[in-house]
Amino acid sequence: MSVPYEPVNVPALNLRAQYQTIRDEIEPVVRQVLETQGFVMGPEVSSLEAEISEYVGAAHSIGCASGTDALLLPLMAIDLAPGEEVVTTPYTFFATGGSIWRTGARPVFVDIEPDTYNIDPAKIEAAITPRTRAIIPVHLYGQTADMAPIREIADRHGLMVLEDAAQAIGAAYHGARAGTLGTAAAFSFYPSKNLGGFGDGGMVSTDDPVLAHRMARLRVHGMEPKYHHHEVGLNSRLDALQAAVLRVKLRHLDDWTTARREVADRYRSLFASHGLDELVKLPVERPGNFHVYNQFVVRVPGSIRDEFREFLVGRRIGTEIYYPIPLHLQVCFASLGYKLGDFPNSEAAARETIALPIYPELSEEEQRYVVGSMRKFLHEHAYASLSTDHRAA
What we know:
- This protein is α/β, with parallel strands linked by helices.
- Helix content is 40%, strand content 12%.
- The protein is built from twelve helices and twelve strands.
- The protein has a seven-stranded mixed β-sheet, with helices on both faces. Strands 7-6-10 form a three-stranded antiparallel β-sheet, with no helix packed on it. It has a two-stranded antiparallel sheet with strand order 11-12.
- The longest helix is centred in the first third of the chain and has 22 residues, at 15-36.
């Protein structure tokens, strides 16, 4: 593979490229909101809720201010209380554990599968106590967790299953889409997501009408009707501007997902054709799963990961580390009593993973530059140590 001498700018995410393809659709709906001056909730939000419900296959969807609130609202709606527990993974964005903590309940962490980075169902049973109220599996990077055994455990113990589907809209598990695999599901519309807005936004989906009604009330200060407050809720309303933008983007989501999967397949072909699939561990897509590749996360030995990333930065290739510190090692969760070594798979993933550029508009030429640059580093700087580490593994 020939690698250009002059660095080519390949950002980790290129939202400008996406915007150029839909500008003519976006600008009229934004102007319409500006003309009506209806900025909070209203018909744009209710229409988006109906369209998300249809898209994921859920009976109800409730828009809210962020993906974090989309996790918090279902936990509030089941009256999760101080002293109670929620089982989840430590290898995830902070909001997963933070939302549990906000209710006063205790996050109870379970290690991940080393290949998918999702919670390991085989380890969940041992974490359940009489205080457990819910399980939050995270569909990390765009692939669903192994939901059948998780649901079986939850049903046996009478627990809520709250899907953290922030990175996984459109993903599917044996034909059923994320958002329909548990009691409720939380989606994020943060701009970097596959369906991203022009700021924060979130959505909860559920088939439970009672849960849906409670969450819809909680997001507006527990109010129903106006100025009648039945409980203390949140100010977590979805803006009409965000809803209008997301309704346009939703029409393109399946095409964008197809393009992301094509980019992922092209990465695999490029790695294989240059022998790098023996040196770099690529994402695993489990049989029966439909991966939507919010991220394309590869794995290299921790001894070279940071140097490797610096090399790519020097060649103007955007990367990210998701996530450098697992939740059980975060300072704010020190009182939970976890320590280094408690969750070895999560800790190894935090040391060894690196997310490469992936978005629908990423060109083959750009991907060749990314993989060619990786080949240059691995063969000229770290081949010996990589080969040794992988043989030891």
